[in-house]
Amino acid sequence: MKGFTIAAALFLLSIGAFCQETATLLPSSYAYRSIGARAAGLSGMQVACADDPSALYTNPACLGYLVAPNSLFGSITPLSFGRSLSNLAATLAVGTNAHVGFGLVAMNTGTITRRDAAGTLQGTSTLWQGTAAVAASYMLTDQSSVGVAGRLHIASAPDPASSGTGIGVDIGYVTSVLGMATLGASLQNLGTMTIGSERFALPWMLRVGVCTVIPFEEQVATTTSATLGTSDTIVIPSSECVLFGIEAQYRAQSPTPTLIVGTEIIPHALVAIRGGIAIYGESLGVPQLIPGTFFSGGVSLHLPSALRLDYAIARGVTTALVHTLSIVARLD
Q1: Using CA atoms, how far apart are residues 103 and 129, in angstroms rounded to an integer?
Q2: Burial environment of residue 206 by CB neighbours within 10 A (0 to 12, 13 to 18, 19 or more)
Q3: CATH number of the domain located at residue range(s) 2-6+20-327 in this protein
Q4: What's the pLDDT score for residue 240?
C-alpha cells in the first residue's frame, strides 16, 4: 500500500507541476504558454505584434500581417521534471488577401513509474498532451484583418479516466489606429473537453493589446512620373526601430486581468533585443502592481538564407526561469 501511495503521489506531482495558476479544469495547461522565443521574450505580449507563424496560437488575424506570409517555424522549451514543450507551424498566403496556418504543439510531461499495492514494479508510462491547430485570416482592408482558428486538444495518460480530447475555437482581429499603432484582440479556446466520463467547458482567454513602432530615422526619396514628369516624395521606413506595446489578458475564473508591457529594440537589421514584464495582475490570489508573475528577455539573429534564430529566457507564474529556442524560415 505504501508503494501505491508513493506512485500516486508522484503522478499527482507530475500533473500539478504544470497546472495553471487559475486552477481550472483544463488538463492541457500549456495551452496558454507562450509559443516561440519571440513571444516568450515579450512575456506573452503578442496579440498585436506577432510576426511569425506562432501567431496562429495567439491571434489568427495576425497571419495577414506577417512580413513573410510563407514561413516555417519551430521551437522548443525544456522544462523541469523531464518535461518539454515543442512546436511546429507553417503559414501560407492564398491569393492576395487570404492566409492559412497549420501547427502542432506537444507537451511531453515526463515519465512515471507504476507500482501495484504491494510495491511491485509494473513498468513506466509517459504522460503526453498535444494540440493541433488550423487557422485562416482574411484582409478586410489594407489596414485590418480578421482570423479564426480551430484547435484539437489531446491528453494521454495511463489511466483512461485522465485521458481525453477537446475542441476549441479562436477568433481574432487586427487593425491600424490612425496609421500610428496596431490594435489587436482575440478570444481563445471557446469550446469543450472530455476527460474520462467528464465533459466541461475550456477556460477561455481574452487578449487586447496595442503596439507602436518608432523608427530611429526615416529616409525620404524623390520619384518622378515617367508620363507626367511630376515629382513626388515617399518615406522609406527604417529597419532600425523600437517597438512598444501593452497587452491585457483575462482568463476565465481569474480574479483580475494581467497587464503586460513589452519592448523590442532593433539597433541593426540583423539583431533584435526584447523584454517584457507584467505590471499588474494576480499573485497568490491577490491583485497587485508588479506581481512578479511574468518577466522575460530575449534576442533575435537574422541569419543567411532567410533564417531567423530567436532565444528567450522567461519566468512564468508556476515555473522558474526557462529557456526557449526558435527558428523561422522564410519561403518567399
Answers
A1: 14
A2: middle
A3: 2.40.160.60
A4: 84
